[in-house]
Amino acid sequence: MYHNLKLLCLDNNETFEVDLLLTFPEYLLIVEVKYISSQSATLSEFPHQLTRLSYEGLKKTFPDPILQVKQQRKQLSVWLRANGFPSMPIEYLVVMANPSCEVIIAANYRDQGRVIRAPFLEYKMSEFGRHHREERLGEEVLGRLDKVLLEGHRASFKTGIERYRVAFDEVKKGVHCPKCGVLAMERKHKNWVCRACGLRSNDAIIETLRDYYFMVGDTITNSQLRDFCCIETSKSATRIFNKLNLRSVGATKGRRYLLDSLLR
User: Fold this and answer.
1) DSSP conformational letter for 177
2) By Cβ atoms counted within 10 A, which residue in 11, 57, 189, 222 is the most buried?
């Protein structure tokens, strides 16, 4: 299994990235993981879009994730051919990772069977395994594929403070208001409150953490969260991490939380 794999497509010299790539002798599986922090997410066929309804009743639209993963499937197929591998069946899924977000799929949405919840992933893999029985890659070729995938992975981009040589202390801190952009919102009774426009939001911190990802780095610790978002206690920061359901590496004081899921 490969996570956040970034490869170069030789046809157009552009890179493409997949969340998860699972390799099997019979087929390959691309998994696009979406963590939508909102009350509901609606997928529609015409036009192809995902509409997110926040807890404050605000709507925002995004591209259809199925179209995104289909494009990744096409790019991976080109990459395989360019690197001398045989044609392979490439399955694809979109996993809606936030169990608290209601997923609404329009009746005419043709790929609704490929939009699933995380616990259903194992069942879908078994289903694909029953469908694809012909071994396409022997052990030797599968091993070479693994080697070429790792060698072809492109390094991550530079953060904003690295690229523009800005000291971290120069970065303005606090949770900015997603409505008017003012710094900094106040934390009151598990909500973020804007002193300028009066907006109350329980997920305003997400946009600020996305900024942190691009400016500072793709992981954050408890103390860094408190410093950057002006949070008073370690327990409050831990509650925020638990609510966002971020993956983590390390233990106790060295634990770092991965922010990549907030970009989807």
Assistant:
1) P
2) 222
Name residues whose C-beta falls within 8 Å of residue 144's C-beta, 6 or more positions apart in sequence.
none
Question: What are residue 108's phi and psi, to 5 degrees?
Answer: -90, 10
Output the CA torsion 89→68→143→133 (10° steps).
-20
CB 186 within 8 A of CB 129: no
User: Considering the entire predicted model, what is its pTM?
Assistant: 0.60
Report the alpha-carbon distance of residue 119 to residue 104 in Å, rounded. 18
Identify the H or E element spanning 124.
helix 121-131
The model's pLDDT over 216-237, given as tens digits with 9 standing for 90+, comes to 888 899 999 999 999 999 999 9
Task: State the DSSP H helix or E strand holding residue 257, giving kind and residue range, or none if neither.
Answer: strand 256-258
Structure-block tokens of residue 216? 């500072």
For 155-182, the pLDDT digits (tens) are: 555 677 776 556 777 788 999 998 888 8
Number of other residues whose CB lies within 10 A of the CB of residue 150? 10
